[in-house]
Amino acid sequence: MQRVGVFVCWCGSNIAGTVDVEAVSEALKSEPGVVFSTNYQYMCSQAGQDMIKEAVKEHNLTGIVVCSCSPRMHEATFRKTAAAAGLNPYMVEIANIREQCSWVHKDMLTGTEKAIILGKAAIAKVNLNTPLTPGESPVTKRALVIGGGIAGIQTALDIADAGFPVDIVEKKPTIGGKMAQLDKTFPTLDCAACILTPKMVDVAQNEKIRIFSYSEVSEIKGFVGNFDVTIKKNARFVKEDVCTGCGACVDKCPMKKIPNEFNLGMDNRKAIYIPFAQAVPKVATIDPNACNMLKNGKCGLCAKVCTAGAIDYTQKDEYIEEKYGAIVVATGFNPISMDKFDEFAYNQSKDVITSLEFERLTNAAGPTAGKLLRPSDGKHPHTIVFVQCVGSRCDACAEKGKEYCSKICCMYTAKHAMLTRDKYPDTEVYVFYIDVRTPGKNFDEFYRRAVEEYGVKYIKGMVGKVTPEGDVLKVQASDLIANKQLHIDADLVVLAAAIEPDKSARPLATMLTASMDTNDFFTEAHPKLRPVESPTAGVFLSGACQGPKDIPETVSQAGAAASKVIGLLAKDKLTGNPCVAHSNELMCNGCSSCERVCPYGAITYSDKEFRMPDRTTKIRRVASVNPAVCQGCGACTVACPSGAMDLNGFANSQIMAEVDAICK
Amino acid sequence: MNNKEYLQEEIIRRSGVNPSKCMRCGKCSATCPAYDEMEYHPHQFVNMVESGDIEPLLNSESLYKCLSCFACIDRCPRNVEPAKLVEAVRLTAIRQQGANRMTANDVPQMIEEDVPPQLLVSAFRKYTK
Amino acid sequence: MKVSYFPGCTLKNKAKELDVYSVKSAEVLGITLEEIENWQCCGGVFTTARDEVATKLSSVRALKYALDREQPLVTVCSACHNVIKQTNYAMQNDKEFADKVNRYMAEGEYNGETEVYNYLEMLRDMVGFDAVKEKVVNPLKGKKIAAYYGCLLLRPNSVMRMDDPENPTIMEDLIKAMGAEPVVYAKRNECCGGYISVESPESAKRNSNAIIANAKAAGAEMIITACPLCKYNLIKNGADIPVIYFTELLAEALGVKEDTNE
Lengths: 664, 129, 262
Known about the structure:
The complex is a heterotrimer.
Chain A: E1 4-9, H1 13-16, H2 21-28, E2 34-40, H3 46-59, E3 63-68, H4 71-84, E4 92-96, H5 98-102, H6 108-126, E5 136-138, E6 143-146, H7 150-161, E7 166-169, E8 184-185, E9 190-191, H8 192-205, E10 209-212, E11 215-223, E12 226-233, H9 248-252, E13 258-259, E14 268-269, E15 272-273, E16 285-286, H10 292-296, H11 301-305, E17 318-324, E18 326-329, E19 333-335, E20 352-354, H12 355-362, E21 383-390, H13 409-423, E22 428-433, H14 443-452, E23 457-460, E24 463-469, E25 472-479, E26 484-490, E27 492-497, E28 499-501, H15 505-512, E29 539-541, H16 551-569, E30 573-575, E31 581-583, H17 593-597, E32 603-611, E33 617-625, H18 635-639, E34 645-647, H19 652-663
Parallel strand pairs in A: 1-2, 1-3, 3-4, 6-7, 6-18, 7-10, 18-29, 20-27, 21-22, 21-27, 22-23
Antiparallel strand pairs in A: 5-30, 8-9, 11-12, 12-17, 13-14, 15-16, 19-28, 24-25, 25-26, 31-34, 32-33
Helix pairs in contact in A: 2-6, 3-4, 6-19, 7-8, 7-16, 13-14
Chain B: H1 3-15, H2 27-31, H3 42-50, H4 55-58, H5 71-75, H6 82-94, H7 107-110, H8 117-127
Helix pairs in contact in B: 1-6, 3-6
Chain C: E1 2-6, H1 16-28, E2 32-35, H2 57-68, E3 73-75, H3 78-93, H4 95-102, E4 116-118, H5 119-127, H6 129-135, E5 144-148, H7 157-160, H8 170-177, E6 181-183, H9 196-199, H10 201-217, E7 222-225, H11 228-236, E8 243-245, H12 246-254, H13 257-261
Parallel strand pairs in C: 1-2, 1-3, 3-4, 5-6, 5-7, 7-8
Helix pairs in contact in C: 1-12, 2-3, 3-4, 5-6, 6-8
């Protein structure tokens, strides 16, 4: 029989306001095994913990029940207290009488009654607890960063700076991501390329960093400290280590009409291409869907002009297997499709563009060499209408758009409007807004400057319809302050499209068993206190894959993710979770039910020899659990029809004892 | 419950619209083809119903200017459905005694060579209880 | 294949072309439009108020008629289509409303089971535009035709589900199947003014003129529509290019226009 001590916490008035803590500790005194019961204002405080330690000594306690907040909050605290008092830390049980009781009840009588029942259940369980010892596993001291935008670049640089090797996997032919496509950056207006490309070069030159460009992650196995990852390196038909990036092949390639992704299809590239001048790695890539040689064996010009001999039409996709201790997700974002918003005529007129397209139109390396010209006729636009919140802040039932605020649009639109007025003072610039959201350092000042110094016309209202007619765009809009409907003949309409996570994020989350929200943004382990960690151990989040972010925020998060990775890789061994499943081989009937439901691949089957009661031997197929891989989710224990599978710390007998205690 | 609150609840129940979903973007009024005919515009219908200010709407000519083209319903990012509010207020107005906007006696003089019956039935349904 | 057919008031009167050509063309395409017996006028507009019951009964009766024959219900006129489809949606999704309606249904209970197709959807989903194209004997080569959808066919999209409400293609696809060239213009899904021409003709005029101007600026030589009221408003407000029903053009392309006139 255990000697159980019960400690009821008031949590100030959080619990004591709705639960009669005195009555709870009194009622639990007479439960089986309980030799001591008390209550205190803040059990988690130093004084509270000392009270527990003293009680362990004085009453020779073998088990502890703390009736307090959620175990997610302080289970670890009280386990440490128990260990300090010489007990096995897994002899502690928490009865959650805050989140699951005092906070959800208003009536003291009901709250107290429920708290007593929850306490009884925890006591029933702790009576069956056994000491558990966690295992240890080694840490592979290498990190994987998935995504090579500014988030991935910064994370990789910071990890490498601490001396750990890092691999970046980027699906495009070059790293750089969205930031490489931007012109200027708010609120200081430095040129994006000028501040990004040195970092890209740093990545390329850093001995600790390897770049897998034009590659994707195809399989992830293992667990924190020990991930086994397969990287698929897509055939680019150019030998990366031989190509010098001279561009002679690009000049000679006869396939000229391939829409250029880097300029969002506003101009064309060749079938063999280098996305932009400062690409890293600066090597050419052949687009297999456009190359004549690859499609029907005719041409071969690029191979002829390549003096380095880098072209290889027979190159195959390559699979690379590597071990990592930590994985950082930095898969970024994209603007949403404007297909469902054709009241703005995006699909009906070339002169209705998205803000990212506007970035390319004003970028010196863009399709117009930085001159602001209309895509339809190359004329200078004299009236430009910017529309904010296109697809952001939509109701879930509205069938199109996203529920969240995309966060970056107010500021980049202010930037676009300001730069246009600065460079082309003869241009009328209207911005239709619902709210202007500028919560950042020097952000509101920036927006006010656009209005007050640059004369951008901000109008509180929305555009309802854009009608292309002749060479004008008839914009019908509302001005809510003037209570008027406006009709503006515009030359260019720019839509601030909502942003969404990259499409590669969802399958990646499945591979990582990392959780996502309904919008496919990765979920953090705690929204405030663990913002760069995924709930899945060893997986970290960097940049817009976790939620819309601007560059400064992305860079800070990237650094924070890196520091978490460094903290992990600095350890030689990781202490595992002892609450893992195990199979009683004598009861196992070899049905494979557990193997099928295990989300971590922790269960394997093998044939084993068993001695039978009649002294003969028999070979049976039985399950075994790899405790290093098992995460203790318990799915197998529920699926097992013969009752062979059980979970340490949450044994079937313990759960039943809790249920009995509650139902008594 | 006073008359103001009663009217507000009646309009909300009849329309099935929750005006508090409105985020004040004004897209309904931006897209409305009858805007210039209306004294109170679609976004004002939403805001005035939300604040219980129904009387001015009941007495407004705006009720009879809405085309029921549903553009505001489809384009509202918050799924507020302003046209349903206009309809609910209009019905509240014309259901009052003697408040029909159009009567059967008006019909004969509207019949012209090319007028489709659809025009007369539609108008009759909109303007008569 | 046989379908239940709801013609509506105007098709028996000022818009006979819409009715007669629809029936003839469907026959060529292998579909028999069986006119619902004793159909009553849909009322022209759907009243969105949830407490309007009597005004929606004629639609429910037509829907029930089709259900009893296990046929889909096909409409031609945009207004009938809008009213019947919205009524059907309310019968499916608003239990309280459906209960009230069913108290008046001597014909038996109805809960939104019937599938409602507009004639255009029938062409796209039951016949297929490729099959239409095969049956065309007089391709309308070189004609630049602007489809005018108006508001009733497409909105509210959550109910109508005909096409992309902001950039529809169903009529353009039909125009292509008939061998002509569709003209895309932004105002094709804007309202002509509808019944407002009774209340404020200037409003209808302004809307109609903007639509015609936009279609012409895009190069249209002719406008087709499915709605008698749209046609009336566009013509009355001075359309200087022909405005006709799409069914008339279809009958011409299929080679059944002449024998219809005889």
